[in-house]
Amino acid sequence: MKQIPSPREFERIQALPPYVFAEVNAMKDAARAAGEDVIDLGMGNPDLPPPDHVVDKLVETVRNPRVHRYSASRGIRGLRRALAGYYQRRFDVTLDPEREVIVALGSKEGFAHLATAITEPGDLVLAPDPSYPIHPYGFVLAGAAIRGVPVGPGRDFVSELAKALEAGAGRVKAVTVNFPANPTAAVVGLEVMEAIVDLCRRHEVWILSDLAYAEIYFDDSPPPSILQVPGAKELAVEFTSLSKTYSMPGWRIGFAAGNPHLVATLTRIKSYLDYGAFTPIQVAATAALNGPQDYVDSVRATYRRRRDTLVGGLQRAGWDVEPPVATMFVWARLPTAFQGAGSLAFAKELLAGARVAVSPGAGFGPGGEGWVRISLVENEQRIRQACRNIRQFLDRSDLGVRTARGAA
After folding, report:
1. Which of 140, 134, 137, 192 is nearest to 162 (CA)?
2. First to last CA, the chain
3. Burial (Cβ within 10 Å: 0-12, 13-18, ≥19) of residue 160
4. Per the CB 3.0–4.6 Å rule, which of 36, 259, 290, 407 could disulfide with 31?
């Protein structure tokens, strides 16, 4: 009788922590299956339609019988040139589309594959804490050790990074940065980017920057690119995406740009793993970057209105939250009555009691405990309803706490 492999977990999968979002998602799915109306402010999944001219270009191109063959894993030349044009207009950064730009199947895929390509046994990688999960776990899956660098309200990221680099001297392979940040919505100016580049140059480590929220900002200071720092291309590569800027998350189009050695490394590993995004999607993405940009202004205005509606509604409900200056998220400390409960327990109670889904902060790393991330992915009417539901939930919870104290 033939032997079969024992059904044990594989070592790399065991390195991943429990997926805390899964419990909230399971509750949400069960409530919806029971016919209940759940307002989902959990996943950062844009609900707006892409620009009409981009969709039209996709439809036009897909009818061409010549575009249904394999594409190029590094992306079509026109799209790489369009990304270089965007960097020139937006950041005054010159990129060589042949050596310093590559198209990815979403920035998440590019990030994970580059992490795999550059990681060796014993490497140490510094990642923000809390952070978007791919930033640390792309490297964990590649076999690296991770050390968190605190980020968010009340944290000096540069000071924390300097301490982490000193503590890991000689072992640190790379640093990941993400400003505007997911989930904390933290932003920095160019002077902070300059300090990060200076620190990493002195310690001879690579920088992987995630700039997915470059165009979702609400004040008069557009977020900078790390590639604006003189000499940054000597050690940095930056990931961008069309998902948030043009509401194209399902299209899976992202980019890596910057250091030519890192771009060439990603190009080589991708040549073994994929044939690139579907050509009509790349053609339409080119139209997004090269075409009129009034859509981007309208998206930014929509998220600003949603932010103001959500923050105002929560504050009136007695939940003290700070308005973010960028991203499509509100990073909220747990209400006072729940601060001892933990973010997962609170998110589950909120879903059960208010029919509003949010993301528990613990899912973004140890530094996220005590917080939740609320996404601006519903229209203003639904957000107002969510705030009313939350207010009623908090009022009931506060009454329960006061009643319990009186009985004691």
Report:
1. 192
2. 67
3. middle
4. 36
- Hey, is 127 helix, strand or coil? strand
The residue among 339, 354, 343 whose CA lies nearest residue 391 is 354
Find, among 64, 55, 111, the residue nearest to 279 by Cα: 64
Q: How many C-beta neighbours within 10 Å does residue 199 have?
A: 18
Residue 21 is predicted with a pLDDT of: 79
E strands, 288-383, are 329-333, 356-357, 359-360, 371-375
How far is Cα 394 from Cα 157, in angstroms, rounded to an integer?
33
**What gap in Å lies between CA 245 and CA 51, rounded to an integer?**
10
Q: What is the pLDDT of residue 365?
A: 94
Average confidence (pLDDT) per 10 residues, the chain, 408 residues = 67 74 87 93 94 98 96 95 98 98 95 95 95 93 94 93 94 96 96 98 97 95 97 97 96 97 97 93 98 96 98 96 97 93 94 96 95 97 98 80 41
The total number of residues written for the chain in this structure = 408
3-state DSSP assignment of residue 159: helix
Residues in contact with 394: Cβ distance below 8 Å, sequence separation at least 6, in sequence order: 317, 318, 319, 335, 337
176, HSE (Cβ side, Cα atoms, 13 Å): 30
Q: Which domains, from first to last, does the chain contain?
A: 11-48+295-403 (3.90.1150.10), 52-290 (3.40.640.10)
Within 8 A by CB and 6+ apart from 280, the residues are 58, 61, 62, 64, 67
DSSP for 176-191, written as a single string = EEESS-TTT-----HH
DSSP state for residue 335 in the 8-state scheme: P
The pLDDT value given to residue 118? 96
pLDDT at 15: 73
Dist CA 52 CA 30 (whole Å): 35
Q: Which two tokens stand for residue 294?
A: 């009034």
